[in-house]
Amino acid sequence: MGSWRRRRVAVLALAACAVACDARRRAGAEHEDTVAVSAQLPALPQERVDSVPPVAAAPLSAAQSEGRNLYNAYCWTCHGLFGHGDGPAARGFRETLPDLGSASARISIDQIARRMRQGRMGTASAGGAEPVWHALTTEELRKAIDYVTSFAPRGARGNPAAGRLLYATYCVHCHGQRGAGDGRLAATLPRRPLDLRTVDAAGRADQLFASIRGGGSPEHARYMPDWGRVFSDQQLWDLIAYLPALRAGR
What are the C-alpha distances in Å from 185 to residues 140, 181, 227? Predict the structure, then answer.
């Protein structure tokens, strides 16, 4: 097996191992939008997260701050830290949990709350227990959903804060802390990784999605993993949503 093939297998093995690890988080802990670790990602050292460019985020409103406490206490373990339905307890439900993060970018808080109350967004667990959010009042539920709306801009297909965690976990090793293609593994590759600071994600989002999902452009595909085998489609959109932060830091 050639050296570049061995390196690719090692990268894929590392990625598969990372996906298999669930991050541990205490319920009710303070949630920081730009540094929280997804339930499907290993727990990263704080300095590792801080090493990549941050995501510009609007300050939370008073209602969203209250909703953050409610979400952390009642919701994140099932719905995930970014509302994608991928929390550590999600596998205990009969059906896939709804992606509240994506829904909140498309429809109103009241519509989501009404659908949840009507049982159209949420299912019972495998043991038949009612969802824990049934303990919340309607106003508390609205505040928790309002907090979810702070995860990504209205109408966005991806969450840049979630994408930042993916980048710090999987991409920084080759593409570098600032996206310049100078990561610690870059020198071992037969071709320098793409300088992501030059990528106009807004202008070619669909093309980027297909490229990353399939393992990069033809000249990079020999050693770039097929990320479609590692990431969900939503995670790919999250990663693409983060790329403008690298471009802004150029």
Answer: 47, 10, 17
Domain boundaries, the chain: 3-22+157-248, 59-148
Along the 250 residues of the chain, how does pLDDT read in single tens digits? 444 433 433 333 333 333 333 333 322 333 333 333 333 555 666 777 788 999 887 899 999 999 999 999 988 988 888 888 888 888 888 888 888 888 888 889 999 888 887 766 655 444 555 566 678 898 999 999 999 999 888 888 899 989 999 999 999 999 999 999 999 999 998 888 989 999 988 878 898 898 888 876 666 556 788 888 888 899 999 999 999 999 987 6
pTM metric for this prediction:
0.72
**Dist. CA 52–CA 178, nearest whole Å:** 6
Which class would CATH give 59-148?
Answer: mainly alpha
3-22+157-248 has which fold?
Answer: Cytochrome Bc1 Complex; Chain D, domain 2 (1.10.760)
In this structure, how many other beta carbons lie within 10 angstroms of the beta carbon of residue 39? Answer: 22
